[in-house]
Amino acid sequence: MPEQILTVTELTGGIKSILENKFQTVSVRGEISNFKLPSSGHVYMTLKDEGAQIPAVIWKNIRMRLSADLKDGLEIIAHGRLEVYPPSGRYQLICTSVVLAGEGTLQLAYAMLLEKLASKGYFNQEHKKRLPDVPEKIGLITSATGAVIEDMSNVFKRRFPAARLLLYPVKVQGEEAAKNVIGALQYFNELSDPALKPDVIIVARGGGSLEDLQAFNDEAVALAIFGSKIPVISAIGHETDVTIADMVADVRAGTPSIAAEIAAPDMQELLKHCDTQLNRQCAALHTKVEGIERQVDSLLGSYAFNRPQIKLEQLSERIGHLVKRMSQSAGNAIRHAERGFSSVTERLSLLDYRKTLERGFTLVKQNNSYITSRKCIQTNDKASVIFHDGEIGIEIIPDDSAPGTSSAQTQAPRTC
Question: Mind giving me the DSSP string for 353-364?
Answer without folding.
Answer: HHHHHHTT--EE
